[in-house]
User: Which sequence fits this backbone?
């Protein structure tokens, strides 16, 4: 975890009681390698993915500075996710305008979505306009394929990303 704390006392919000559609997901999967789907089903139809499903994937990512999820800190919310035909855009809000962890948070969101979504999706990650003092620089870094690849080659940075994603598989719940 980082040595310098950018926001030592973040506001923590409680998660909504029924935040997401986890019961709907168990009945009908939309992931590429689902063993319940036959080869013919995959070839004939492409399942749509919606805003709530993307939000379920990213809301349980842990903040790099605090033992709280991005949902609890209101860094991400369902309305900040836009889903197009083959494009997903996530806008997130850092807890403070000078947050030095914004790039790392965006990288965690990108890695979680790239690991979870079919390859046909292009993912764009942006800071909420006006929410960060280095908004343009962070947005440029988060959406540059070469910069993202270089960041993920750094073992220390990759280890931090893995720690933030450790419980992301809970899909909105804590383990």
Assistant:
């Amino acid at each position: 975890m980082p040595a310098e704390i950018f926001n030592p006392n973040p506001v923590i919000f409680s998660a909504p009681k029924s935040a997401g559609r986890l019961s709907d997901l168990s009945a009908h999967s939309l992931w590429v390698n689902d063993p319940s789907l036959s080869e013919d089903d995959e070839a004939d139809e492409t399942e749509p993915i919606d805003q709530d499903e993307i939000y379920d994937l990213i809301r349980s990512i842990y903040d790099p500075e605090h033992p709280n999820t991005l949902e609890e800190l209101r860094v991400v919310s369902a309305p900040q996710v836009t889903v197009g035909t083959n494009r997903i855009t996530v806008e997130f809000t850092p807890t403070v305008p000078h947050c030095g962890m914004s790039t790392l948070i965006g990288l965690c969101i990108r890695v979680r979505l790239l690991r979870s979504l079919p390859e046909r999706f292009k993912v764009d990650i942006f800071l909420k306009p006006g929410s960060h003092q280095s908004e343009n620089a962070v947005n440029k870094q988060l959406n540059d394929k070469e910069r993202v690849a270089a960041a993920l080659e750094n073992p220390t940075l990759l280890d931090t990303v893995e720690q933030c994603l450790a419980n992301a598989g809970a899909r909105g719940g804590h383990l």
Q: What stands out?
A: The chain has a mean pLDDT of 81. The chain has one domain: 48-170. Residues 64 and 164 are 6 Å apart (CA to CA).
